[in-house]
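Hi L., both proteins are below.
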Amino acid sequence: MDEDIALKMRTLVDEMVDDILFSSHIEQFPLATDISTILSESPEAEIISRLESSEKTLVLQPRCVDQKRGGYCGHYALRNILWCLEERNPASLTQSLPLWRRYWTSIRLLLERSSRENNWWPWTERDICSGLMERTYLEHVLRHDSQVLDTNSQIQVLQYAYGSLLSDVSDVLVVQESIDRFRSQSQSSLSFILGVTNHWVAVFVQKIASRVNLIYFDSYNVPVLTATPDELKLIMDEKEEDHRKRKGRGWTLKEKEETVQAYEDQKNVVLMLAHCCSGNTNLKREMAKETIHSLITSFNKHVEDLQESEKKTDTEDGFDKSEYVVLLSVWLETRYHPKQLSDALLDRLCQLGLDQIDDAEAALLRAWSRNIRTRVGSFVATGIDVIIRLEMILDTVESILPQSD
């Protein structure tokens, strides 16, 4: 399609949406109003998940505009956060027109940036108009969009997948500082757009007096917080059938596994934020825990479990040291190189704060280190560089951990 024609089409659609939207008045609610009360009491709002872990913490998932096609979720997430910051009218939460007006506003802003960039990914017109909200696009919109800036609120971005926070430590520290300020005030709010596995979702947290209310938005409207495994299976079957009608095929095994993982991750990260904002834990402690458990899980899977499966019987206890050394060296070369152990484990734990390591995780690391020392014996005698370097890592690990009782 000719670029001038494409631009005219986008401008025309944008103007049409503006005309329709502003031809009718949408009532706005005061920003100090408790959103959970608005949603709970309005006959126009549908709550599809509700969790009340205590008298002071409430998690709600209202129905929002339902996403029909993959790839646009970032635009839905941004629209839902802006709904919390600007409108709070339950009648507009499930209306498509405000969503698409927001979509075209973002696309127009990104295309303006594209015109100033070289013609390479992700700043080509084709990339931008695909509808995918790349992390780079989202950050640009949050920094430069006038509607976002007019809210005077910082919308924070975190990424989470496969049970772990994937954001940089520096980003996690900044978000935790925001949570600390939030907890110190009697009335405050936080806004999050979360990249979870393969999907963008939104979370708005509001504090009224001593009560913390968390509003969770998923553009697929899957009640991951409260649905049973059987109910999620039915939802997956329905979505796969819809995919088959549109694409002519069902989901691949990989797509099914990613969907199951996404549901699990969405629930975990929302509950983690609820606990952090309520003061039951903090992001630094959670990231330290995830870092340690990821290491131990990988080690057990690729070294300990494989060694056990070999069932060596040439020694009294069935342990074959030479086999163990081979497995350990392969794990170090391909999974956790000593440089990565230093950066991803030691440096990360130090940045997060050694006081954030719980006793249980400290015990796990000590047992891991001592087990390797017992199995390997003399590291130098192996003659393998990565194993020799591992000994220095273990020395450091043991030195930074608090002494056990």
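That was the first. Here is the second:
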Amino acid sequence: MNRRKFLQITILGSSTLGGCLKGKENDEDVSSKDFNITQTPVFDCFENSAIIKFYRKENKIVVNGQLESGGRSCTRTILDSATFLENTCVLKIIVADESTGGNSCTLEEGIVPYRVSIVLKPDSLQKVNIIHKNKRGNVHFDRTADITSTEGEKVVTKKIKCQ
């Protein structure tokens, strides 16, 4: 490897990680967020999954996911939180079911397709962690995708398919 290229990679890597070592975790780094339930499942399966797109120029993350959910008559799906973890450069997105408190709830299961769009203030994002929780708060999906990009890439796409 030529010496200039090695130094360039080393300096680039150091500057990228530099923003990730502060140890801060809060919602202040999230500039905007939007969540809605969609009509079309992401994949043709009855399981949790997601497609993550990172638009580098806008520092925007769009997740089209599907949450495996039960008892839909007394349950709604919400964006529980979106937090940037500066110490690891990870955007943590939690989508959860929440009880609506009905008396005669059905037990049917279904897939709830959703779309989350988040714009971050810091530009040091390296990974996205998607977590799905049921209405009791139990985690039943927890996957992390590396979305680091090369300088020429405008959009990075990662698929977390059904297993």
